[in-house]
Amino acid sequence: MAGLLKKLWPAAVPAIPENDDEEIFNTEYSIAMEYQGPPVTYAIPQIVPVKISQIPIASPVSSGTFLNNLSFPIIQPIVKSKTLNQKSSKESVDRIESSGKLACENGYESKPKLSHGIGSSGTLEVPDDDKEDGGFQDYMNPTNWESTESGLSSRVPSSEVFSCREDDGNDEIPHHVKRPSVTFESNEVVVHEELDESEEGSVSMRPKIERLKKGVCYRCHRRKRFVEKEVCIVCGAKFCYDCVLRAMGSMPEGRKCVTCIGYRIDETRRGKLGKGPRLLKRLLTDLEVKNIMNSEILCEVNQVPPELVFVNGEALRQDQLFKLQNCKNPPKKLRPGHYWYDKVSGFWGKEGQKPSQIITCQLDVGGHVKRNASNGNTKVLINNREITKEELWMLKSAGVPCEGKPHFWVSEDGTYQEEGQKNEKGKIWDKTRTKLVCAVLSLPVPPGTENPSRKEVNGEIRDNLAQKSIHKFLLVGYDKSGTSTIYKQAKILYGIPFSEDERQNIKFLIQRNLFGYLGVLLEGRERFEEESLLEKRKRCAVDKSGPSGDTIQIDDTTIYSVGTRVRAFSDWLLQVLLSDNLEAVFSSASCEYASFIEEMWKDAAIQATYNRRNELQMLPRVATYFLDQAVEISRTDYKPSDMDILYADGITSSNSLTCMEFSFPKSTQDDTLDPHYQRDSSLRYQLIRVHPRSLGEHCKWLDMFEDTDIVLFCVSMTDYDEYSADCNGVLTNKMLASKHLFESMVTHPTFENKNFLLILNKFDLLEEKIEQVPLSQCEWFSDFKPIVSQNRHNSTNPSLAQRAFHYIGMKFKTLFNSLTDKKLFVSLVTGLENDTVDEALRYAREIIMWEEEEEPYFNNELSSTDIEASSTA
Ligand SMILES: Nc1nc2c(ncn2[C@@H]2O[C@H](COP(=O)(O)OP(=O)(O)OP(=O)(O)O)[C@@H](O)[C@H]2O)c(=O)[nH]1
Ligand SMILES: [Mg+2]
């Protein structure tokens, strides 16, 4: 029988054994073949599970349309035991030994053997045609087979690509996958595969394939870098638009190449099950795609094998896994691996890691949670588990006293009490701040009453919402470097509304700031008045003693003197400011100050003072913006505009840690460049802004942010001649202080391999300042000696500020490289201008993507400034 089959399809029957044994007849085989008959909707390979005995071999040539229209059929045994939890339908079932090895039931250890047709000598009988094909020949040559350490697998040498002779140049079989080899020493079918020991506790059943160059389609081998591809969830082969249907066939188990059908999925792709079949959507109807996606999610072979899921050290049974997956709040992204579960609180996490989720409590899965389950080292316990640093931070933010290394009992709703004490002390989750801290530190919060992501599919509850992976940007900078301005700018840019609470806070903040600015003005007026009085007296004295006796009547005093009403208001305001009682004043909303402010603002003395505002050092630059609308702002019904919010100094009174989630809106640039970016509009990002004060001494709290994808380190370029006093009153150059903070961060062990994007901010201010104060004022920049041409500035002849920016960037790059051996990315920003902030954040996204893809997507011209290309001289 096998011989006959081989005669029929000599080049395409790799798996048919020599023996005509009944066993073989009764083994189910799949035939994947391409249909080349009259046009049907689309030509796709058909997968037909048949037994050899059922194959219509009577007269293949004359058997009519069906067989004649099939070319290159691939016949493969369907090995039902490819998933570890599945029962075999036959005796010829592979057994998974406890060591995780795959072996034959009869104890024969499988040897790598041919799969094309075995001669009695065990050598290959390769048809002449095939011999011409180097790749195929290599594959078929037993001397080229190698055993791996386990002795179970075989590696295809040479190209490692199963290459099949092309008949008409058009209809290759999906040939990239290394075929499982088959031995027939015991009439049993054994699939040899490579073990991927990298996966936690699992025996990977995935056939390895040769990784082709990026962008290459695994079927037609054409390089189409910017063309969307569909990926096999088992072997990772990617197929282009033209090839995907031929390579994947009817997809009974979702997006798998035909040769991967029956195999367990690659666990790293589990998160992608049922998601984003963008290419298929272009090729198939909605219903077809939906069915394929449903099969992908629901078919048995794609499920997580229970014995590979360990909870508190115990492997699960099928019923336990079912319970876990179908409870009210099931673990998300459940994959084979080791987890811990605190039944009392519902905390759930990967072994050795902080909790990732709060699932339904009191489930009967796994044993007791171990003290070291999450590898915490804080000596503080929650339900017998030593908690992690992050959790300790969260508890502290919730106001839970943690001195004395207490042991807490925490229940599902977050109520907690100390061990040995009867009274509940409160609820952890009550404070909004605690939730914010949790969001930032990637700690779970109890699920809401309703979880909208859960959906009923075919009677089974599945978490069907895309498990969006969030990329985290950590924005840090020295005092007043502009991080909150950039943060607010991002909020406005990406349409993340300020909450009512935030708006109320900001409104008060702006009004308070305005009163502060007015206070500075009023003090200034008093000073100017005194100065002019002094001046007047001097002049009088000169006049009296003067020879001529003529007096020049310039009386400045009237300019700076105010009427009684304004004086009274001014005295009151200064008093309020001094007593720091503004909040109380504003909270009595019934009081309307606008009319006072208006009267005062119109006063000639105040206007005269305002005109000399450059002499008032206490008045920040931004004050002009707010003073110009002093009357509107002081009204009780004032609503801050986005611009007002942006310019307001500080976000809230406690602005040490803020966090927002956003997506990049699709830009026209994204459209034209790469599908990757189009997909990106659905990806979520988190911008976390943290003040260095919150990081503690030597940034000791920095490891809270270990899952940061990229650090945006913000430096104000105007800091080079400014000083700040530390707690001992010692003055430090702010640029050097910034450099010091930068060094602490980049050398922090948690951030060893992190990407850093340096944001050189306040370029607008630098342009003004650099004309007045040389950059070399800062000792770190002492060798900045630019030769600036008098000609107009252009791209080849940059301005002094541009040169300074390049120079500062270079200094940081060199420093970064000397500390980390890595490349620092740099972006030029003016925090008050939205386009530069947008550009910097998109650049950060690009850097993360490069990391993911290992290759840059497009050239740097489109991204933020590349310092390396510039010169500093
Ligand atoms: N002109 C100009 N002003 C800026 C720029 N970026 C920030 N500022 C101003 O600089 C001041 C400090 O900026 P913030 O964003 O508050 O700085 P910060 O990093 O939050 O500093 P902390 O207040 O210490 O938290 C504010 O008055 C901002 O309006 C910029 O690019 N140009
Ligand atoms: Mg600020």
Automatic annotation (TrEMBL):
GTP binds at residues 761-764. Residues 107-155 are annotated as: Disordered. Coiled coil: none annotated. One of its GO terms (biological process) is G protein-coupled receptor signaling pathway. Keywords: GTP-binding, Magnesium, Metal-binding, Nucleotide-binding, Transducer, Zinc, Zinc-finger. Mg(2+) binds at residues 484, 654. The keyword Isomerase does not apply. SMART domains: G_alpha. One of its GO terms (molecular function) is zinc ion binding. SUPFAM superfamilies: FYVE/PHD zinc finger, P-loop containing nucleoside triphosphate hydrolases, Transducin (alpha subunit), insertion domain. The keyword Ion transport does not apply. PANTHER family: OS01G0977800 PROTEIN, PH DOMAIN-CONTAINING PROTEIN. This is Extra-large guanine nucleotide-binding protein 1-like. It comes from Castanea mollissima.
